[in-house]
Amino acid sequence: MRKIKVGFLLSYDYNRLKKSIPAVYKYSDAIYLAIDKNLRTWSGEVFVIDNNFFLWLKKFDTENKIIIYKDNFFKPELSPIQNDTRERHMLSIKMGIGNWLIQIDADEIFIDFKKFIDTLRKYDHYLKKPKSNPIQVSGFLINIYKYLDDGILYVKKPTKVLLATNFPNYKLARKTKERIIYTDNLLIHESLSRDEEELKFKLNNWGHTNELNKSFFCKWKSANKYNYHKIKNTFYLDPKVWKDLEYFNQKDLNEFKKTIHKTSNLRISKVYLIRKNFGQWFKHLKIFK
Questions:
Q1: How far apart are CA 136 and CA 128, in angstroms?
Q2: What is the pLDDT of residues 183-231, one digit of tens each?
Q3: Dihedrals phi, psi of 39, to nearest 5 degrees
Q4: Overall average pLDDT of the 250-264 stretch
Q5: CATH number of the domain where residue 246 is located
Q6: With left for phi above 0 and alpha for psi between -120 and 50, is residue 177 left, alpha or beta?
Q7: Greater pLDDT, 159 or 288
Q8: Among residues 189, 178, 193, which one has the least CA distance to residue 283?
Q9: C-alpha–C-alpha distance, residues 109 and 271, integer Å
Q10: pLDDT at residue 288 above 60?
Q11: pTM of the full predicted structure?
């Protein structure tokens, strides 16, 4: 059987891997951590990794599944998003074409990884000739907007995330622009749920640095449990992607997970999946190529 290979990018937010790696560890055949050998971000800033993280990693990796992949992932002549795309491609090549190549960001936490793997196995026939039949498999992110002292602000509706591919011809970050198979698998996304200093560093060093909308940070700073319903269009790129926020009255992420499947606006409907998957199938029919 083809292998389940999972890749993470190890950078300045490395401590978040302590949540995201355990969520996928049991059902992965191998986990690759890509790290720039000179500890540079895609913008060329130097970051530091506390040795305690590697001690945790060694203790946690009881089945010897985790592989550290070091390489030169920063090229000064490239933009941050080009360095992002390049690193993801290099990582997937290292993981090995012919397997399911899954890339998850450090701040993305699978809710049910076994369910996702069971979904992937339905499409194993795409691994036989991946270059001739490239696909991507998506899930959906539940985006945590901000942790408050007594609760969580999150984006009201999930957003698509591209997770797995059989052929990593990435064009922009994780996007290959090939056929997408949409699934109802969910992940919690802690992208913005940081303190102000940490968030500023991220915004200056990730792949989308040059694309940020000017109103984003002001809205993020001002949002609280009293005014969240008045704050609209909060996404860091095209603001309208995140139209509305919701409030959960506990800060415990495990308690939040328990409510997800009971919350109607966080569920992905079968009708939506059928419509999206038919559209992708039709769009990528060979007769149109």
A1: 15
A2: 999 999 998 877 888 888 877 776 676 777 777 888 999 999 999 999 9
A3: 55, 55
A4: 89
A5: 3.90.550
A6: left
A7: 159
A8: 178
A9: 25
A10: no
A11: 0.93
Compute the C-alpha angle 285/287/289, nearest 5°: 80
The answer to whether 104 and 8 are in contact (CB under 8 A) is yes
- What is the rounded distance in angstroms from the CA atom of residue 162 to the CA atom of residue 178? 11
Please give the Cα distance from 188 to 144 (Å, whole number): 7
Provide the pairing of β-strand 30-36 with 66-71.
Answer: parallel
**Which tokens sit at 9?**
């990018």
The Cα 162–Cα 287 span in angstroms is 25
Q: Which residue has the tokens 């994780």?
A: 174
Residue whose C-alpha is closest to residue 78's, from 69, 90, 91, 87: 87
Nearest to 79 by CA among 44, 30, 116, 40: 44
pLDDT band at 287 (very low <50, low <70, confident <90, very high): low
8 A C-beta contact, residue 155 and residue 242: yes
CA 267 to chain centre: 18
Rounded Cα gap, residues 33 and 205, in angstroms: 19
Query: Which residues does 212 contact at the CB level (< 8 Å), separation at least 6?
Result: 203, 236, 237
Q: Using the 8-state DSSP alphabet, how is residue 104 labeled?
A: -
- Structural domains counted in the chain: 1
Domain span at 217 = 4-288
Report the candidate in 144, 145, 189 with the shortest Cα–Cα distance to residue 163.
Answer: 189
Separation between Cα atoms, residue 2 and residue 121, nearest integer Å: 9
Quick one: pLDDT at residue 191?
A: 81
Per the structure block, which two tokens stand in for 10? 């190890």
Distance, CA of 163 to CA of 34 (rounded, Å): 16
